[in-house]
Amino acid sequence: MRNPTSKIALPLVALFALVWCNALAAPDGGRVSSTDYEEILQATAMSSEEVPERDLVFVTAGPLTESQRAELLHLGIRVVSAVGNTVHVRGPITAFETLGPGSQALPWIYSVLPSPYVEVLGDPSPTVASAEIVREAIEADRLHEKGFRGAGVNVAILDFSFSGDVRDEFGAHRISYYRLAESIDGRAPDVVPGLDTTSAGDHGEACARAVLDIAPEANLFLLSTGTINGRKEALRLLATGQLEVEGETIGIDVVSDSTYYPYPFDHGDGRGDIAQLGDAIVDAGVVYVNALGNFAQGENTTMSFFGGSFEDADGDGLLDLVPDATDPVLRNTIDLVVDPFMVWLAGGAFLRFSLEWDGWSWLVREDAAPEEWNPEDFIRVQDLDLVVYSQDEDTGELTEVARSDTPQLRRTADGGLVPPTENLQFIIREGGTYRISIENSTGRYPLAGPIERPVSVHLHVRASAPFTLSEHTESGSFVNMGGATRPIGVGAVELTTAGWCVAAYSSRGPTSDGRVKPEIVAPTHFATVVPGYAPCFEGTSASAPIVAGAAALLIDAARAGGIPHTPEKIKEALLHAATVLCGGCNPECSSMAPAPGAPEATWREGSFDTGFGLVNVWDAYQFLVAGGAD
Ligand SMILES: [Ca+2]
Ligand SMILES: [Ca+2]
User: Does residue 531 have a pLDDT over 70?
Assistant: First the structure.
């Protein structure tokens, strides 16, 4: 089979060479995906007086300037919110016409993300456990018997879909719903009481009920944050350790977060915006519990992950993703088989790819500001592009379906660097075999020359129809908050005939800098009455609130006993007391030691699939009472 990309790559060499010569030149490439662009063109062609509106997220190099805001307004695009380098915008669909493939307009926008919404974590699995079985598994019932049920502990739940059911049922203590009112002029949003009526679903409600399964008397503050900027703002607010609502100050003790945003902010090392905010929240005295993700499975799944360190040894411009394969297509691409029947049944499916590599400025050069870099520093960044093909079932021929080719080796207008990420989302009408390649475009820049290096890549794949990613990777498959240092990253265990075993999909560690993730695992696939999830709630989404509930019980007990209970103490107690699950649940113990330097390594070994083990809140309480003595 011929290599289908060699023809496509050639004309780009010249084009990017010109771009490189002028450091401030506009980027090339369709920042709006071709599927979206077709929709925009169709709307533009309509003579209808009613032009539909569209929300998009622009990723920029730095904070939005006043002149950039004015440029957008001129096009009829309003800024809903701008937080750091993500700008949530809204406008008539026709206003985005200038951002199509090949466009030179608005050069300070280097990426356009089609969906502004934060994702939830959920995926199918086996035996349904009752709330009683879950409480027994983590020994929460023993704390209940001592009268510790989370009374007076304030737990915030970050999500974007609440229905109000939990409040209606649990009236005895405080359960309050809030939403972030994103102001249209880009000001920081206010926290407003009440349900967010713009988002359907009840994922947050299922999380709330899971917290109450463990800590039935905890106060809940359910915070609806539907967009990436809403989420960043919510994290910033929580980094003060409290919420200010209508003049009232509410101190937050625990945060439970089972959401993620399908865009990477670091190389899984906890140094990006989102992870740093997670750390700041813990610094403010709050126990932060986050679901690690459901990306570790490769077969018959809707979320998967591929990662590793790759070179282009055969010199065809594509990273050798399967270095040992002799066939060039098999060596340079990985296959994604999407269930044809399910795509047919749904009349189509979306595929989403998020590629990220180790070219972040802090990983490449820490000793100089980007404006002081020399060409070799830029070479260390590397410019990768993501290309997806469909493969003909009979002939094996590949046809390019979508490409994300943001130029990374370009200084942005404000002297910054373009982050090492490529993002694609598009609709397919047919299932079957798709192939993914990662092009290394670094050599097309004259200043870069032939210098190459192995590149560590992370690729998250998400689809609305089941697929199989044959070359999937478990290691490092967590989502954006997963790399944070101080929060508690939670994996999922399911009840099986062998006991509590790690779920195949539960995202694994370690972090890119070798730290143990998950820190702990908790039951998933347990009974719920929440309509959208009944009869059972699953995924790491369901496990994180169990740990949040456990933390609430510990804080309740610690307060009653006058025991110090900083977030570090609570985390240490939970991790120290967790029940070791060697090999997931395999009786043959083979847990891996954490990398040297990991703080937990001094007192316990952790594995990269189950962390320090299954939550045991009773033993954690004993550990706290004993003053943390080993
Ligand atoms: Ca190659
Ligand atoms: Ca690129």
Answer: yes
